[in-house]
Amino acid sequence: MASGSAVDLEDVPSVELMTELLRRFKCSSKPDKRLILIGPPGSGKGTQSPIIKDEYCLCHLATGDMLRAAVAAKTPLGIKAKEAMDKGDLVSDDLVVGIIDEAIKKPSCQKGFILDGFPRTVVQAEKLDEMLAKQGTKIDKVLNFAIDDAILEERITGRWIHQASGRTYHTKFAPSKVPGIDDVTGDPLMQRKDDTAEVLKLRLEAFHRQTEPVVDYYTKKGVVAELQAEKPPKEVTAEVQKALA
What EC number(s) has UniProt assigned to this enzyme (predicted)? Predict the structure, then answer.
């Protein structure tokens, strides 16, 4: 450990230290899990991943966040990624896999990880598998959040937000008292530009084209669990637990 770390720990309140120690102790008996979450926008991955992360003591790797973090930390891979981004190029698959490789060596990823937003293509899946094979591990489960496009459209295009507070409403599932008006302030509600039917259609087309072959790729390996993602969140959580048992 770097000499700075010991001093830093002295400043951490005892309750926090004990909580972290107890968490690690509880986690030590959990089986290792390396998971991929696949699903279109609005399928509920964002709701389930924190629950899975806590339950199985995994680290959550969202590739977009990791890229930004690597760029900010100016790691060698981060510098390369920034060069690509500055040119307006896509960050290469090898770079992203390298950043994942770095991330999963952290203590928080000791029990495994949840990958979200990657792999999006079969080539990325193959590169990821190669990298894991070098470490003597592999993907244990791919959770496929299967949901009908029509249900997604209803879920997403019905979302309205109060921009100042972040309060969200849904025309069908959680409507405001007066349509288009925030309950608390009376301000007009707005829709995110990603939440319109046109944008959703494009995102879904891209998802089906690129990512469905990834599901087929992992199905052949026998690691895919299909979730019925249109169910209420609690029922989906139960399905996830069954799939990971």
Answer: 2.7.4.3
Active site residue 167: no
Considering the entire predicted model, what is its pTM?
0.80
Residue 111 pLDDT level (bands cut at 50, 70, 90): very high
177 catalytic per annotation: no
DSSP letter (8 states) at residue 117: S
Identify whether 111 is a catalytic site residue: no
Helix (H) or strand (E) holding 143: strand 141-146
Which pair of tokens denotes residue 91?
A: 């960050």
pLDDT digits (tens, 9 = 90+) for 37-47: 999 988 999 88
Q: Is 45 among the residues known to form the active site?
A: yes
Query: Does the pLDDT of residue 143 top 90, yes or no?
Result: yes
Looking at 45, 80, 111, 127, which residue is catalytic?
45
